[in-house]
Structures are given as C-alpha cells and as structure tokens.
Amino acid sequence: MRIKQTVLTILLVVLSVSPAAASSQTAKIKTMGGGSEVYLVRKADNFIILYDRSGSMGDILKGTVMTELAAQRKILIEKNATLPDMNWQAGIYSFTPANGFDNLVTYYPMQQYDKKRFSRTLSLMPREPKGATLLQQGLTELDQVLAKMSGKTVIFLFSDGQYTPVESIKSPGALAKGLALRHDLCFAVVNTGAEKKGFKAIKAIASANECSYMVSIDELLGNPEWMTNSLFSVVEKKPVGATDFSLGYEWQNILFDFDKSDVKAEYHEVLAKVGAFMKEYPKARVVLAGHTDSVGTREYNMKLSHRRAASVRKYLVEKEGIDESRITLSGFGFEDPIATNDTAEGRALNRRVQGIFSNIE
Predict the structure, then answer these.
(1) pLDDT tens-digit profile of 193-237?
(2) Residues contacting 181, CB < 8 A, separation 6+
C-alpha cells in the first residue's frame, strides 16, 4: 500500500464583486490563515461532446440497473451542473443518425458555452437507444466543424466501440490521428463497455496523440468531475501571457495522516468557517482539486487525487450541510506540482487538495 501525507489547501476566488465587498471577503479569508494568490487557468478553448445513442447503448451497465445510454446522460447532466464557466466554445453532436441521413447530428452547434442552454439541450437528448453507429462517417464530418474553430479543443467521445464499418473509409483510429494532425485537439474517450474488438477501436482513438486518453464510464459514474482535467488547471503562479484565469486566495493548509483521507478534528474549525462562508454566499460554488506527487503511475495518482478531494466534499456536505451540487471535484494526479518531486519535502507539498470558489455575490 502506498503511504502518503496529504496537504489540503482551501482557496477562494473573488469574482464580479465591488471593491468594498471583495475587501470584506478577503478579510474573512485571512481570519482562517493564508492569503497568497492562486489561479484557475483554462487549458482548452473549446469542447465537444460526441453522444452515442445507438442500439448497443441499451445494454445494462455492469454493476448498475441503468442502461449505458442513461449513464451517459446522467454523467453529462451532473458535470454540466457544476462546471465553472470559463468562456469556452462548446457543442454537442452525435454520430448516431436520428433520421437515417445525417452522419453527424447536431444538438448544440458550436457556440459560447451557456450552462442553462446546455442543460436544456442535455435534458432533451434521446433517451431511447436506437440506430446504427456511423463512427467513421461522424469523425469524417467532424473535420468540417473543427476547421471553423480556433484554439485547443477537447473532444469527449462516448462509445462502446461498436460501429457499422465502411471499407472505403479509414478506420476510426486512423481518422482520429488525422484530425489530431490537422487540428489542435485531444480526445477524451469514455469507454461505455467495449468488448475486445470494440475496445481496440476506441483505444486507437484514445492514442491519437499524447494528450488523448481513455476512461471507463463506471469510473465516471458518480465522479463526472473526472472529465474536468482537460479543461482547466489550478496553479500557484500567474501564467505568463495567460488571459483566461480566475484569481484566488490560499487558506491555511490542512494536513492528512499517511495514506488517509479522513479530516482530522484539529481542522474542523477551519472547515466550519468554509461552510459558514458558503452559507453566507448561497450562490457560491466551489471546485476541489486534488494533487499528488510523482510516485506511482499516472492512473493510480489520478484516482488518488480524486479520492482526496472527495473526502473534503463529503465533510462539507455531511458536517456543514453544503449542497453537493455546489461542489465540483477535479483530480490532476501529479500533473501540476508546486514543488520539486526530487525531495521528500517537495513531494509533501505536492500532495494536496485545493478549493476554488466562484460566483460569490
């Protein structure tokens, strides 16, 4: 078992408030210790959801009573509810024809991300699995959508790897690599239950370039915030030349025991103040971001960073009565260190969780 000591850092972002109000909020933060600046930085300019509503998505997701399609909708709706608004361009498409003619069906054409409109669109998405999966054709037509966009794009592709093959068109993996060569993008593939042949197909898409990856839908279920990693990051220093960031203030560090995620009694008072602050500002939302040192695999550290953030959310929900919908979790594993991983002291600093509050009015 991996033994670690964790540091929890609580942060506050002051957005869209008057100077007097900001000063008052900052004063309250300082009563809890800390006060140094941190930043929530946008890593992508655009994101696209590729929705799979094909017949095979009617299969029951292992370990649940939901179909794969229902699980897909649940994850997207929950993720949208807590996603910070960082001025993205966004779109929702499907490579499963609704009428038998369109290879790439448009539900939310690429436009400024609007949480309410996105939510309405997701609520109207098909609930019944139906139709063939024209994955090759859909990826081919996606090229036209990407050609009109600028900046970096993250494509969240939901698929079980089953599709209707067309010999005259390149394989999904080859098409994905071609898109990655022509456009600045990353594929975030959500495996909804692929078997051997299907797994090979979506694994090839997830290998389109270095920033692309794959995660299983059962890991996302209940943890939709795992989709966040590609969209923004949390850093301690203001990025040179960066324009899309939110300013925050660091609170007192809260230490965890080795390989534990329990919040110790000595820090209950600090978290009580966090809860009181959120109650005073009922529209405020918070992102809890977990981090690790560089010891261990990327996969292990991603899961570990999420577990740490989840323990803080659990405390705020169960002990302080904060609505869970106001809290988003994100885990960055060892990708965003604030100190060297070459020393024990540095690794201890990198094992941390951060909280970023927004929408304070």
Answers:
(1) 877 778 999 999 999 999 999 988 887 876 666 677 788 876 667
(2) none
Sorted by where each begins, the domain ranges of the chain are 20-41+232-358, 44-223
The CATH class given to the 44-223 domain equals alpha beta
Burial class (CB within 10 angstroms; exposed 0-12, middle 13-18, buried 19+) of 243: exposed
Compute the distance between CA of residue 318 and CA of residue 233 in angstroms, rounded to an integer.
Answer: 27
> In angstroms, how far apart are the furthest CA atoms of the chain?
66
In the chain, beta strands by DSSP E: 7-13, 37-42, 46-51, 89-94, 105-112, 153-159, 185-191, 213-216, 232-235, 245-255, 285-290, 327-331, 352-358
317-341 residue pLDDT tens: 999 999 988 887 777 788 878 789 9
Cα–Cα distance, 290 to 243 (Å, whole number):
24
C-alpha to C-alpha distances, 295 to 174, 303, 351, 353, nearest whole angstrom: 34, 13, 10, 17
How distant is the alpha carbon of residue 7 from its chain centre? Answer: 21
**Looking at the domain that runs over 20-41+232-358, which CATH code has it been given?**
3.30.1330.60
